[in-house]
Amino acid sequence: MRRPAPTAAFIHRRIADIASARGIPAPSYSTVRAVVAGIDPGLRTLAHEGDAAYRDTFELVYRRNAGRPNEQWQADHTLLDIEVIDSKGRGARPWLTVVLDDYSRAVAGYTVFIGAPSAEQTALALHQAVRGKAKPSWPVMGLPDVLYSDHGADFTPPGWSESALIPTFN
After folding, report:
1. pLDDT digits (tens, 9 = 90+) for 48-78
2. How far is the C-alpha of 148 from the C-alpha of 74, rounded, in Å?
3. S-S: 66 plus which of 31, 71, 81, 145, CB 3.0-4.6 Å?
4. Residue 75 bridge partners (DSSP)
5. Do residues 97 and 20 both lie within one domain?
6. pLDDT tens, position by position, 102-120
7. Both 97 and 52 in a single domain?
């Protein structure tokens, strides 16, 4: 995870030196290369290119490959880069909660609000996503097979186990 990124050959040589010093067999080059290739792309981007590149590439929505509409949806929040006047006449930055269909990249539902993201705001965006829309030009609706989120407190009900953090809708 260093900058610049070391080559698999360099990593293999270093591991071989450490293994030799400890008197254990070194892994093969192909094993080291497979481990290096298996590193999460987000982690690699964060380590090699920094926070800004990671945010530009992976935040708000990480692109998954769905084969059909409503197969996979993603939900997340982002603080908008604008300022509005709240009900008390003060400037405030609004939040956007968005639900995206991974197949079409279409917005299935959203909500814009002042204050911290909450389960209520998430529920409002999901309600809009599931319902039919008043405008025929916005046909995205229904129930997704899978809903992905960042597992924040507003997405994770109390008492859920780690294995249940990606709910499925059947």
Report:
1. 888 777 767 766 555 567 888 899 998 989 9
2. 5
3. 71
4. 99
5. no
6. 888 899 999 999 998 888 9
7. no
